[in-house]
Amino acid sequence: MNYLLNICSVKKLKKQKHTMTRITIAKGDGIGPEIMEATLNVIKAAGAQIEIDEIEVGEKVYLSGITSGIKDESWDIIRTNKVFLKAPITTPQGGGYKSLNVTTRKFLGLYANVRPCVSFHPFIATKHPKMDVVIVRENEEDLYAGIEHQQTDEVVQCLKLISRPGCEKIVRYAFEYAKQYGRKKVTCMTKDNIMKQTDGLFREVFTEIAKEYPEIENEHWIIDIGSAKLADTPEDFDVIVTLNLYGDVISDIAAQITGSVGLAGSSNIGEECAMFEAIHGSAPMIAGQGIANPTGLIEGAVLMLNHIGQSGVAQKVKNALLKTIEQGTHTADIYNPAISKKKVGTKEFSEAVIANLGTTPSTLKAVDFKNGAALKLPKYVRKASKNKSLLGVDAFVHWNGTDPNEIAKKLQELNSNGLPLKMITNRGIKVWPNGFQETFCTDHWRCRFQHPENKEVTKEDLITILKSALEKGIDIVKTENLYSFDGKQAYSLGQGQ
Ligand code: NAD
Q1: Closest ligand 1 atom to 292 CA
Q2: If exposure means fewest CB atoms within 10 Å of the residue's CB, which of 214, 261, 326, 465 is most exposed?
Q3: CB neighbours of 284 closer than 8 A, spacing ≥ 6?
């Protein structure tokens, strides 16, 4: 091998001084080792100035009893080198194993997932020949915080957490990315018509930050119609920024409609560290046969080369890759007798890319990465605290009855220190007062106690309610305080309230 493969201790790593960039790689599982070898051969042949530390992640590590899929000492190497090129891994079936991708993103604060989705028309079949979209997905928050609880026999919940720093970082990243890569428009997608607090905050931050970039067009789409439009006319979009769950879904849709999910790479960017990968999995069915397509991981490596400031090499690799696809040299997954000229294996494909280094495609659009390199974003600065007032409490009650009037009567009998019961909802829909008989109710009741004139209350008032409920055998499974911040109501109304 013509690259330095060196697994060494972190102490040793810190002592060494290099002009080259030291990166960490993991060959992963299934087709991982084959496509990693092909990728490294291509980027080294293109002149990548890198030195490599290899770590082991994935199936073998999981099955050795490490449920995270990665050893502690491997974290040290990743954190020292700060740049991680990872091949796909196989997550063993069955409970207890944690997703290494999710853990890596969270531990290393990799808040931005960036996935360029470009079609290779007319060389790879697609309904969207002009598609060239970059999805910038928030990577740490949202329902992916994984905070879930069962609260009653019938109801489980997952907390959706959205923070201002999280929104500011990802939205600014999207605009800075658009600026650096000469993109014209950033589209925000949320569901703020329904989730006014969480998605509302994301959109509010988008509107604020968009003003700092007057040269870049901005727009907002509700995620449902926005995704439909993306699937129908992707050429109308440029950069899309969105929350974690929506981003997860639309980034796979976007990659698939370019022609194949197997061709895209993605980067996961944090303030300190970054991870680069193909978006596909370890394809165990075709592992070891030498037929896997290495394009996705090569695309991941192109993003990495830009990130470490080796944009010239990134450009050379990408243009050679485009040229190879254009020549009809295709692996089995994209081979189409009507378009392709030659069916090749993983190694032959990478050799064809190497032979094309220094050339540019004639039909596909050649890339120009003169403005590559990692984005330098300002660190988030915490804002001054707002004036926070406590206005009441939502007490969630586990109750097996069916008539809301009955539970309302019990709650009205509590000592609530002058905080009357204002409303009851079931799965968010108001069922008391004046509920509809037709509304289906579960055993999970949100009961709101609030001062009639919206005056400030104390935590002691809330404790009095909880104590009284305990004495009367009412099962309160959780509470949420009702606040206003700088006089602005900071909780949702019941649907129908
Ligand atoms: P997959 O992406 O591995 O495979 C889906 C289909 O695409 C298969 O038919 C496969 O043969 C084909 N395919 C994928 N990549 C290809 C390539 N480079 N060349 C040619 N064909 C390719 O998805 P899966 O089958 O759902 O998952 C397999 C394993 O991968 C699972 O254990 C899953 O957890 C894991 N996975 C890992 C990652 C990751 O590490 N980032 C991502 C997704 C899935």
Answers
A1: 19
A2: 214
A3: 29, 30, 31, 90
